[in-house]
Amino acid sequence: MAAKDQVVVVGAGVVGLATAAYLAQSSRYAVVVLEAEEEVAYHQSGRNSGVIHSGLYYRPGSLKAQLTREGRAQLLRFCQQHGVPFALCGKLVVATRERQLTALQELARRGEANGLERLEWVDGKDIPRFEPYARGVAALWVGDTGIVDFRQVAQALARQVEAAGGNILLGFRVEGLHFAGGQWRIWGRRGEVAARGLVVCAGLQGDRLARRAGLTPAVQIVPFRGEYWELAPQRRHLVRHLIYPVPDPRFPFLGVHFTRRVDGRVEAGPNAVLAFAREGYHWSKISWRDLGETLSFPGFWRLVRRYWRTGCGEMFRSLSKAAFCRALQELVPEVRPADLVGRGSGVRAQALDRQGNLLDDFAFSEGPQALFVLNAPSPAATACMAIGRAIGERLKAILT
Ligand SMILES: Cc1cc2nc3c(=O)[nH]c(=O)nc-3n(C[C@H](O)[C@H](O)[C@H](O)COP(=O)(O)OP(=O)(O)OC[C@H]3O[C@@H](n4cnc5c(N)ncnc54)[C@H](O)[C@@H]3O)c2cc1C
Fold first, then answer.
1. Are residues 344 and 251 in the same domain?
2. Which ligand 1 atom lies nearest to the CA of residue 345?
3. What is d(CA 334, CA 254) in angstroms, rounded to the nearest whole number?
4. Distance of CA 382 to CAs 60, 67, 81, 321, 377, Å?
């Protein structure tokens, strides 16, 4: 039997693990996953809202729209097969002002164009039928939305990789990558690994590793922290499922919302504030290197010049519980600051270009016998299996 080609996947978030699981199924590849942390899904994949997105928001025909629909169906099958609990509970997108109705109609149109099956327009007076405590002038019921714990998805994917003969090396922080003579050398303090093919799915560190491998990506990752409050257990009845505002198309990730988790908790958030470190899960975590890189990137100042007001509003809501609560009261007037208890957060790896544009779509870059993920924002957890398949197929094509 011919020797297998070794392929290294850097990063054991859901995107890296789904890619590894796809490649490990092929008898041609010996797959090794290198993960800096001591557990899988330690960063974005384990600190997100846990929403299985329906594909409602995305521009029809975009990579996001395509991969989300395909990935969502695969994810649901995977959860069923691997005993990962999930619920297709649906979500309500609520217009709280007349001026949001046009945007809500546009969402309904996009949803249809993207093939969503369970969409329903809800008049203001009927909102309580779906969410008894939500108020608005109209809403869109999106039945295809669900919830899952993506950390459990990652753990199940890791088991699948290992069952197919792949290796996952935890605590292996990649520090250098070099391509010569048809082989990659990938090293860190834990040792060195050689590989014929390389995939880098390093989330918040994705652009840096691409640069270390000799690429010159035109984007830089800017970390935006998303902070959550949890509803006190005795107030969880205020939210049945998921309640979202109508998104601002310029900032699709803005707008705090309510999310029920698979374990029954209800979270409110996330907001979006600049993190002072790539893994900056709270205000006090500062990395001068990370912050210096953000502040010296021209795209960051172009973004600030355009949207400083929005940014200040997000910071204010981060520092003031009363202000955060006021934003939530737009959707559910009964919620009170005292109802908001424990806090959590995640940091988004958001790619920004030099012109100050936040990249909306998934973005990848190719190197010799290698692929680098440069932007995998929400809903990349929902779409992880479709992204993993797309990356895997492309790598196979490059390697043959
Ligand atoms: C607040 C928030 C809410 C979100 N909500 C949702 C949601 O509800 N639904 C949804 O579909 N998506 C959501 N997302 C997006 C989703 O979580 C991400 O798109 C997805 O998890 C990206 O997965 P990943 O594997 O690319 O990145 P990550 O999960 O960040 O994984 C990257 C991995 O690479 C490792 N790594 C980094 N550098 C190195 C190195 N040098 N050597 C070795 N390993 C390294 C890291 O330790 C990490 O484990 C949300 C994201 C955030 C932050």
1. yes
2. 1
3. 22
4. 17, 9, 16, 30, 10
The residue behind tokens 């899904």 is: 41
Domain count along the chain: 2
Judge if the beta carbon of residue 18 lies within 6 A of ligand 1: no
Question: Is residue 128 a part of any domain in this protein?
Answer: no
Domain membership of residue 273 as a residue range: 220-353
Pair 293, 263 in one domain = yes
199 and 7 Cβ atoms separated by less than 8 Å:
yes
**Tens digits of per-residue pLDDT, 359-376?**
988 999 999 999 999 999
Asked if the structure places residue 185 within a domain, the reply is: yes
Ligand 1 centroid, distance to 297 Cα (angstroms): 22
The reply to whether ligand 1 has any atom less than 6 angstroms from the CB of 50 is yes
pLDDT digits (tens, 9 = 90+) for 209-250: 999 999 999 999 999 999 999 999 999 999 999 999 998 877
- Of the chain, the end-to-end C-alpha distance in Å amounts to 18
Question: Is the torsion defined by CA of 326, 240, 112, 18 positive or negative?
Answer: positive
* pTM (two decimals): 0.96
Judge if 232 and 288 occupy the same domain.
yes
Atom in ligand 1 nearest the alpha carbon of residue 376:
19
Do 214 and 242 reside in the same domain of the chain? no
Exposure b/e, 228-258, CB count within 10 A at least 16 = b: bbbbeeebbebbbbbbbbbbeeeeebbbbbb
